[in-house]
Amino acid sequence: xxxxxxxxxxxxxxxxxxxxxxxxxxxxxxxxxxxxxxxxxxxxxxxxxxxxxxxxxxxxxxxxxxxxxxxxxxxxxxxxxxxxxxxxxxxxxxxxxxxxxxxxxxxxxxxxxxxxxxxxxxxxxxxxxxxxxxxxxxxxxxxxxxxxxxxxxxxxxxxxxxxxxxxxxxxxxxxxxxxxxxxxxxxxxxxxxxxxxxxxxxxxxxxxxxxxxxxxxxxxxxxxxxxxxxxxxxxxxxxxxxxxxxxxxxxxxxxxxxxxxxxxxxxxxxxxxxxxxxxxxxxxxxxxxxxxxxxxxxxxxxxxxxxxxxxx
Length: 312
Hints:
Layout: H1 5-11, H2 17-31, E1 39-44, E2 49-54, E3 60-66, E4 72-78, E5 81-86, E6 91-96, E7 103-107, E8 113-119, E9 122-127, E10 132-137, E11 142-148, E12 155-161, E13 164-169, E14 174-179, E15 184-190, E16 199-202, E17 205-210, E18 215-220, E19 225-231, E20 237-243, E21 246-251, E22 256-261, E23 266-273, E24 278-283, H3 287-311
Antiparallel strand pairs: 1-2, 1-24, 2-3, 4-5, 5-6, 6-7, 8-9, 9-10, 10-11, 12-13, 13-14, 14-15, 16-17, 17-18, 18-19, 20-21, 21-22, 22-23
Helix pairs in contact: 1-3, 2-3
């Protein structure tokens, strides 16, 4: 007569239950697809590719996660997909984190797109070439090609928080604030930066890099200065992003990605090294790995418990 794992579990002594539970957890970890493990993606402008790294130890997972790009700039992650802006191609492509084939031309007709910010099903794109912010859905449907116009200060990075957009203006070293409906709130919310490119937001705090001074500054979303040199001694930092309570900083000269707390404490200043042609980075949200593991484990344990109770 055939037996299976469930029937064996229901007849084993109670002393074996903890061992079997550990075995189930290990099995679930082994079965998790690579796409759900925490990842860092970085654009490589020399090979026009996106490189995938492990967030846990900084090793390369895939040198060619996405290839055939055209000067990749802005990166954003939402709904299990990586969105990539191609500066010279004037388009946005979308690629599943699972590694399945994507859509390299989800949105076309843009003018030197740079930063991407996503809120729900809405995507906001900085067009550096015509100094505007465009709004599309994450399915590629146009909402407003000129949601914000007349920026005129070489906009690059963008982030969305609390229903507002925060835009990095490289030309006048500032960050402007706009509503997601396109209204100007404060075009000079934060000033006095030094060659900023991208920014990250955690709660009510804004983190922005200053390439020429080798620093990352911290400000509130109301424009107040918390610490203009929260992190210093960097090597031409060109991008910063947040992940939980950590900051990840991409250094252009040293070709590294460093990890810090949002308080500025170094965790690993060279978590990832050898990043070629670096310009921007994105991190997979933390919940994707553990939510899947916890959900799978809970479901399996519920089945095991029900079978055991039935056999009692």
